[in-house]
Specification:
Length: 110
């Protein structure tokens, strides 16, 4: 009668040895092949920019962390990155962050 090759294959110790060796090799090679995680950014290295409140027009200096931030007193997410309008001599809400970055409008404060 014909032997079941599936049962025979998985009872053979050579198959288990090969599978364990493959698993160990994979555990050793994966960290070498995949990129390492990016290091955390220090708080001091994050640029500070001006944010303007879309409701009151108040200007705040905050670290560049998000497209909109909560207002310090109201808690509403009304602070958006600002650009300076030299004609009106005041800060106004700027375009989205990716547009500001592309246009070179995001410069660290002195």
């Amino acid at each position: 009668m014909h032997k079941n090759t599936f049962t025979t294959t998985f009872t053979d110790p050579r198959v288990w040895t090969a599978m364990v060796a493959f698993g160990a090799a994979a555990c050793l090679l994966v960290p070498a092949v995949l990129p390492a995680r990016a290091p955390a950014v220090a708080e001091e290295s994050i640029a500070e920019i001006h944010y303007v409140c879309t409701e009151s027009g108040e200007v705040f200096t905050r670290r560049l962390t998000a497209a909109s931030l909560p207002h310090p007193t109201t808690g509403k997410p009304t602070l958006v990155p600002a650009v300076y309008d030299p004609r009106k001599k005041k800060w106004k809400p700027g375009p989205p962050l990716e547009v500001m970055h592309r246009r070179g409008l995001l410069r660290p404060m002195p």
